């Protein structure tokens, strides 16, 4: 399964903590991330991650393109709802693409944990239905 990992600056540490906790599950999948987030996760976990540009420089759009091309299966995007983001239109476009293409999307730790446990238990066969 192809999984995108994205986090706003104030949520990067949360995503690193999540990635450490679920490293055995994540290591069985193809991982993608925006630039800085991907590097920090790799440095902390040793996971292999294909990195795109940072979000503000187009990384969100690069992941969105994979979604539109049916090349992404799950998105974990720890958003910071309390801080304005200069590239908010790109973020909204990415979220909209997840909705358009029925891509499971977690925007916080609670939902990410539900999705990762479903992934572990083999519950994500939705593309085959």
Which helices and strands appear, and what pairs or packs with what?
Blueprint: E1 2-7, H1 12-21, H2 23-26, E2 30-33, H3 35-45, E3 49-51, H4 59-68, E4 74-78, H5 88-100, E5 105-106, H6 109-120
Parallel strand pairs: 1-2, 1-4, 2-3, 4-5
What's the total count of β strands? 5
Question: Helix proportion of residues, in percent?
Answer: 40-55%
Structural class: alpha/beta
* Name of the level-1 CATH class: Alpha Beta
Task: Explain what you see.
The chain has one domain: Rossmann fold. The chain has helices at 12-21, 23-26, 35-45, 59-68, 88-100, 109-120, and strands at 2-7, 30-33, 49-51, 74-78, 105-106. The model has no long low-confidence stretch (mean pLDDT 93). With 129 residues, it is of the alpha/beta class. The protein starts with a strand and ends in a 9-residue tail after the last helix.
Task: Please name the defining characteristics of this protein.
129 residues; alpha/beta; Rossmann fold; 6 helices; 5 strands; 47% helix
Give a brief outline of the structure.
The chain has six helices and five strands; from the N terminus they run βααβαβαβαβα. The chain is α/β, with parallel strands linked by helices and 129 residues long.
